[in-house]
Amino acid sequence: MLQRLFLILCLLSCVALTSAGCSKPETEQAVAAQTDAAEELDAGPVPGVDYHSFANTDDYRVRHVDMDLTVDFSRKVLEGEVILHFDRLNDSNNPLILDTRDLVVESVRAGQGDDLQDTTFTLVDSDDFLGEPLTIDLPSDATTVAVRYRTIPEASGLQWLDPIQTAGKQHPFLFTQAQAIHARSFVPLQDTPGVRMTYNATIRTPAELRAVMSANNDPDAEKNGIYHFSMPQPIPSYLIALAVGDLEFKAMGDRTGVYAEKELLDAAAAEFEDTESMLEIAEDMYGPYRWDRYDLLILPPSFPFGGMENPRLSFITPTVLAGDKSLVALIAHELAHSWSGNLVTNSSWRDLWLNEGFTTYLTSRIMQNVYGDERYHMEMALGYARLEDDLENLDDTAQILAIDMRGIDPDDAFSNIPYNKGALFLYELEQKVGRDDFDRFLLDYFNEFAFQSVTTEDFLAYLERTLLQTHMEALDADRINQWIFEPGLPDAAPHPTSDAFSRIDPVRQGWLDGGIAASDIDTDGWTYHQWKYFLDGMPEMLTEGQLAAIDQAFGLTKSTNNEIAFSWLRIAIRNDYAPAFARLEHFLMSIGRNKFVMPLYQDLMDNNKADFAVRVFEQARPGYHPLTVKRNSQIVYPETDS
Ligand code: BES
Ligand code: ZN
């Protein structure tokens, strides 16, 4: 495996460092200069080079995509034609190289406008995690290609759900998840966040279902199985999204609403009723919302993430429907991506922290405005705790914000570092220059780079010519570099704390010492956050009696808050607390969100419960998303090289 990784790494750097490769810098000289520098030092990755795409974006840039796709639930296949309109950046007339993974390509035409002729292409089989480059020969004046193709049922970016896996149990469901490099498994394109395109789509579905996309959804569109979409703002490929199911719509505000199966619609609209206020607050701080509407789509529980910021239509796990708005920071997060990520986009996956760190920072600001200081401090403190965990457990190289992703599958590199270390860095800047100036800086940054892709170095150069000039005495360039390019945290980095949590510590300790009985703890008015903190601060080992006492007093095994259930189930696994295992099994069978299921399978493996883990995993597997299958197979079958 290691050898294979090394080989991929070499191959990749060769591809990327030749002029036919996938680098972004605008001129060939710039590429050559960077190439020399990189070779001389074997200096890490070249900024702006996307090591996760085969596309020759120095030769051609796709500007617009037209899709006409049929959703065939019986074969679990998406099929049809996509037409890519591109600019030619030079007169090399090199073949056009697109990204694909597991696509079956039937024919390719090329030419100008509607005048397209069959052309030759090659698609070489490979099991590389980057997929297979589709190489298309072009007539010398071609600016359009049309690809007829279909997906395979196991496409990594699609999940096809049987009716039984939905809330209504009557109709099948399909959804896409393109970030980071899965768009290529359902559309052939330049699958790199360095390229932006507009799109139009016609989606053909069974007549009783509704299709929605990261585009101009019309809740009043007749339900007839043919749906038309357009996305007029240019977006990177990882934000192309489609879902098809028995969906209904409910408005929450003038610009906000929710799509869900009818069983969940009212609960979702109530839980997320503050979305419109969040949108207004974000606009006050960071400038106008540029995407027209902001709607939510509630997915079935197998959705592998908490949320995904698909423009105009964030995809949301139903596991945050707690009934008390306790988990709605997720909505603030996906909304905040409308500025950090969707408007100003990471140039490659090395720069993910520009998306996620900024978004995590913006989230905390939105939450503070809508729900007040106490919740703000608690959520910051919980974020800090997640960061501490990762700083303890991850290798040094994985703790770097501008992470070297060469040869690494982005699916395997997911951590809290880009989120919480990135956000903590911005919080430090805020503390040093003051909120007003920092807000102004962010507003200007979003305007400066609107609808563009940005490298870590672009951000640093911008910081240098703005904040660093105006706040020379407060800021220190070396320290900023340390934040971005070194593992760990700089000395005396901020450490967010919460008074509401400090009040929990003596209570927990008193109970652990035996001074107070579980049933005597005054938990009146405890928020979800305090419960989470109470549980996450428990020592490794508890006695059977202690476990039974808090379970009985607080109904933990029965908790309907999935975050609390998750924290409790981790304690139960570590301590072999049998009464919680039926709930654990049900949890793993019914939820596919990796943030929950991966740690639970890992805990089972680490606590001599591999048999249980394998049994439940195999039972749950047919209902899991391809990503959940891939990530958790690596955990429950650690010896196999997958
Ligand atoms: N864009 C991410 C999800 C993502 C990141 C998918 C990288 C693939 C690769 C999304 O905005 C996100 O961060 N989701 C989090 C939300 C949480 C931090 C509030 C999640 O799913 O848990
Ligand atoms: Zn995010």
Task: Please tag this protein with its features.
642 residues; alpha+beta; Immunoglobulin-like; Neutral Protease, domain 2; 4 domains; 7-stranded mixed β-sheet; 38% helix; disordered N terminus; binds ligand BES; binds zinc ion
List the helices and strands and how they pair.
Elements: H1 2-17, H2 28-41, E1 60-72, E2 77-88, E3 96-100, E4 104-112, E5 115-118, E6 121-123, E7 132-136, E8 144-150, E9 158-161, E10 173-176, E11 196-204, E12 210-213, E13 226-236, E14 242-245, E15 248-251, E16 256-260, H3 262-271, H4 275-286, E17 294-298, E18 307-308, E19 313-316, H5 329-336, E20 344-346, H6 352-371, H7 373-393, H8 417-433, H9 435-448, E21 452-454, H10 456-465, H11 467-470, H12 477-485, H13 499-502, H14 504-512, H15 528-536, H16 544-554, H17 562-574, H18 581-590, H19 594-606, H20 610-620, H21 626-636
Parallel strand pairs: 1-11, 16-17, 17-19, 20-21
Antiparallel strand pairs: 1-2, 2-8, 3-7, 4-5, 4-8, 6-7, 9-10, 10-14, 11-13, 12-14, 15-16, 18-19
Helix pairs in contact: 4-5, 4-6, 5-6, 6-7, 6-8, 7-8, 8-9, 15-17, 17-19, 18-20, 19-20, 19-21
